[in-house]
């Protein structure tokens, strides 16, 4: 019954959000506890918004705080968010709010009251909230002192349902992080074995694999269409491409392009939880969010080889006529190095943001109070605040500058 109620809530939220959440120029604040402060799912969200949908010109800022509950953010949000002035906020609380014990009504009420406070405040400011519930604990590696992993996941499922309810009440999207992680774990661990963690070796701080699942849940909740682009190669005519991809030359099945839109790229090996590649078969990231489609028309053979970058794969005529997803078929591709360059710039920016907020901005009100509201000290604090905001903005500009157009070649050869 509980799962049915969650499903119905999600259908209601999806119905309310047929339109994309992000408007051009959106400013996205990624908020949460230590899982957010790991700066991985926040990085993946920012990477996707920067390179996969650059036409939206979205800027991001992560506000993760280790050990935090929804009540902690409710207390600091007015001061801390003022440094960024977001138009969209994603929330990810519940892991600590659950108290690492079985669910009881008191846990649910406390979580709902504090999350309602956050959502109500942001809504009053005209901010769209992507109301994320908590993630999950690992069915193999979680070792609670007084609770089994299935019991704590039941607790987290209750909190996720509360987040979905708040989202529906306020006509905001809900990011169902919990169910996404449970579903990926149920598929990945039987396939890769019980040495493979999805929710982290400590049971609740995921590696890059679990963070990709989390990013998937938030990006899906933003209702992004997932179309990175389409390239059509007519072997008896010309080649065409959609916005973000420019045809430089085309002849004899060979097409040279310059692309300002990247597909999302993956790291690591097929079995490591420390990278994103291992989880790709168990989460519909490529299907739902990462479609760079190649269509080949007028192939006069049953099959053809497609070479993209250093890799070559064979496809049937029907597959090519329908369209193949280059991002899914070629995990190592001509965008991988450029993607890694943008990722490095995002990591540098998000590292600064943690120091900026936790070590400085959060402490400004108490520092001002301790100094008795002295005008000179207050002015000095405001100068420092402006300098920090300017530095974060410069690092954000550096992220955008790192996204250079990529030149690449696709070769189609009949077999």
Blueprint of the fold:
Layout: H1 2-16, E1 27-32, H2 34-37, H3 41-52, E2 59-64, H4 70-81, E3 88-92, H5 105-124, E4 128-132, H6 149-169, E5 174-175, H7 177-192, H8 208-221, E6 227-234, E7 239-241, E8 245-251, E9 254-259, H9 285-289, E10 291-297, E11 303-308, E12 311-316, H10 317-322, E13 324-325, H11 326-329, H12 336-360, H13 364-370, H14 375-402, E14 406-414
Parallel strand pairs: 1-2, 1-3, 3-4, 4-5, 6-10
Antiparallel strand pairs: 6-7, 8-9, 9-14, 10-13, 11-12, 11-14
Helix pairs in contact: 1-6, 3-8, 3-12, 4-5, 5-6, 7-8, 12-14
Protein architecture, described:
With 415 residues, the protein is α/β, with parallel strands linked by helices. The chain has a domain at 2-221: Rossmann fold. It is 46% helix and 19% strand. The chain is built from 14 helices and 14 strands. It has helices spanning 2-16, 34-37, 41-52, 70-81, 105-124, 149-169, 177-192, 208-221, 285-289, 317-322, 326-329, 336-360, 364-370, 375-402; strands spanning 27-32, 59-64, 88-92, 128-132, 174-175, 227-234, 239-241, 245-251, 254-259, 291-297, 303-308, 311-316, 324-325, 406-414. The strands form three sheets. A five-stranded parallel sheet has the order 2-1-3-4-5, with helices on both faces. Strands 8-9-14-11-12 form a five-stranded antiparallel sheet. Strands 7-6-10-13 form a four-stranded mixed sheet. Helix 1 packs parallel to helix 6. The chain is globular and about 80 Å long. The chain starts with a helix and ends with a strand.
């Amino acid at each position: 019954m509980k799962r049915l109620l969650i499903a119905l809530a999600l259908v209601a939220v999806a119905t309310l959000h047929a339109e994309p959440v992000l408007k051009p120029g959106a400013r996205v604040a990624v908020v949460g506890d230590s899982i957010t402060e790991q700066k991985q799912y926040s990085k993946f969200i920012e990477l996707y918004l920067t390179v996969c949908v650059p036409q939206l010109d979205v800027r991001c800022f992560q506000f993760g705080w280790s050990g935090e509950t929804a009540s902690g953010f409710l207390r600091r949000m007015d001061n801390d968010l003022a440094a960024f002035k977001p138009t969209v906020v994603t929330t990810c609380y519940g892991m600590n709010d659950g108290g690492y014990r079985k669910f009881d009504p008191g846990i649910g009420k406390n979580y709902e009251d504090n999350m309602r406070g956050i959502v109500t405040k942001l809504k009053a400011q005209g901010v769209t909230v992507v109301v994320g519930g908590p993630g999950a604990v690992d069915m193999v590696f979680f070792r609670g002192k007084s609770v089994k992993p299935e019991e704590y996941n039941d607790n987290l499922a209750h909190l996720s349902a509360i987040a979905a309810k708040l989202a529906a009440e306020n006509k905001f999207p809900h990011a169902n992080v919990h169910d996404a992680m449970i579903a990926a774990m149920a598929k990945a661990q039987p396939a890769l074995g019980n040495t493979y963690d999805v929710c982290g070796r400590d049971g609740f701080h995921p590696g890059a694999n679990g963070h990709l699942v989390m990013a998937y849940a938030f990006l899906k909740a933003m209702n992004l269409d997932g179309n990175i682009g389409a390239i059509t190669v007519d072997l008896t005519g010309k080649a065409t491409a959609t916005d973000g991809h420019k045809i430089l030359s085309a002849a004899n099945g060979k097409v040279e392009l310059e692309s300002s839109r990247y597909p999302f790229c993956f790291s690591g090996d097929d079995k490591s939880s420390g990278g994103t590649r291992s989880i790709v078969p168990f989460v519909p990231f490529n299907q739902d969010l990462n479609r760079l489609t190649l269509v080949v028309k007028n192939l006069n053979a049953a099959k053809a080889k497609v070479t993209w970058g250093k890799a070559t794969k064979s496809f049937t005529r029907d597959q090519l006529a329908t369209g193949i997803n280059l991002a899914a078929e070629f995990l190592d591709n001509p965008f991988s190095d450029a993607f890694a360059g943008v990722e490095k710039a995002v990591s540098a920016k998000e590292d600064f943001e943690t120091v900026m907020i936790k070590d400085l901005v959060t402490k400004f009100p108490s520092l001002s109070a301790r100094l008795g509201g002295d005008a000179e000290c207050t002015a000095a604090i405001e100068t420092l605040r402006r300098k920090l905001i300017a530095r974060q903005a410069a690092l954000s500009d550096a992220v955008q500058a790192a996204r250079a157009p990529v030149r690449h070649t696709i070769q189609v050869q009949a077999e």
